Amino acid sequence: MTSRIALITGGSRGLGRASALALADDGTDVVLTYLHGREQADEVVAELAARGRRGVALQLDTRDDATFAAFADELRRALVATSGREQLDVLVHNAGTFAPTPFGATGPATLDDLFALHVRGPMLLTDHLAPLVADGGHVLTVSSGLTRFFVDPVYAGYAAMKGAVEVWTRYLAVVLGARGIAVNTVAPGATATDFGGGAVRDTPAYQERIAATSAMGRVGQPDDVGRAVAAIVSGRMGWVTGQRIEASGGQAMGHA
């Protein structure tokens, strides 16, 4: 039997890395993309190999739609070379970043960049990659708990982009449903990564404030979200589609 294969954009660090390793632990080979961190990407590929899985790192700027057709061809060649297949089983749109958008003090370039990375890029990239996703496979977008709960106005632009991602995900679920492809979005809560300059990871006082209103009483770790990603795109979840699945430990719900 051939192994399942997943593509994770932005898979060299943070939640992308955690998702790649969790998928490997579930027996999935991984193609990951990176923008600048080739060394980090190679380290993830080595970690996948240590788990007995194949890994490939490809460079991609998910804001540059002019490169998407060439990337799809490169991906197809990489799949054939490493697995003898031309298709993926899982596509995870994870690449992203944060930029503050304070009310009354946000320039259009900041909003344009957030939109290109989080909304336009995944939409146009999927046009090129959908033929490479096997029937019965999975597409997973990454949203944010910030589409549900309010933290600070500086997150408004980022949260709005993720709200758009959630709406597009539901439409994509209908479009790809005829092929048996499940399309969902995972919405991580506050997680100890380098997101936002590592504020959650590096600020104990911030962690305490979040934990105080979280059902599980702590902030998330990358592995918490990585395992959620692996579960959502598993074969056992093929009948779940068009859903927003929050992986936040019950953030902003109060103690259970």
Describe this structure in a few short sentences.
This protein has one domain (4-196, 223-246): Rossmann fold (3-Layer(aba) Sandwich).
Characterise this structure.
With 256 residues, the protein is of the alpha/beta class. The protein has one domain (4-196, 223-246): 3-Layer(aba) Sandwich (Rossmann fold). The protein is 43% helix and 17% strand. It has 8 helices and 7 strands; from the N terminus they run E-H-E-H-E-H-E-H-E-H-E-H-H-H-E. The protein has helices at residues 14-25, 38-50, 68-83, 108-129, 156-177, 199-202, 204-212, 222-232; strands spanning 4-8, 28-34, 55-59, 88-93, 133-142, 182-188, 244-247. It has a 7-stranded parallel beta sheet, sandwiched between helices. Helix 1 packs across helix 8. It is globular and about 50 Å long. It starts with a strand and ends in a 9-residue tail after the last strand. The mean pLDDT is 94.
Identify the CATH homologous superfamily: NAD(P)-binding Rossmann-like Domain
Largest sheet: 7 strands, parallel
In CATH, the topology is named: Rossmann fold
- Rg over alpha carbons: 18 Å
Sum up the structure in keywords.
alpha/beta; Rossmann fold; 256 residues; seven-stranded parallel sheet
List the helices and strands and how they pair.
Elements: E1 4-8, H1 14-25, E2 28-34, H2 38-50, E3 55-59, H3 68-83, E4 88-93, H4 108-129, E5 133-142, H5 156-177, E6 182-188, H6 199-202, H7 204-212, H8 222-232, E7 244-247
Parallel strand pairs: 1-2, 1-4, 2-3, 4-5, 5-6, 6-7
Helix pairs in contact: 1-8, 4-5
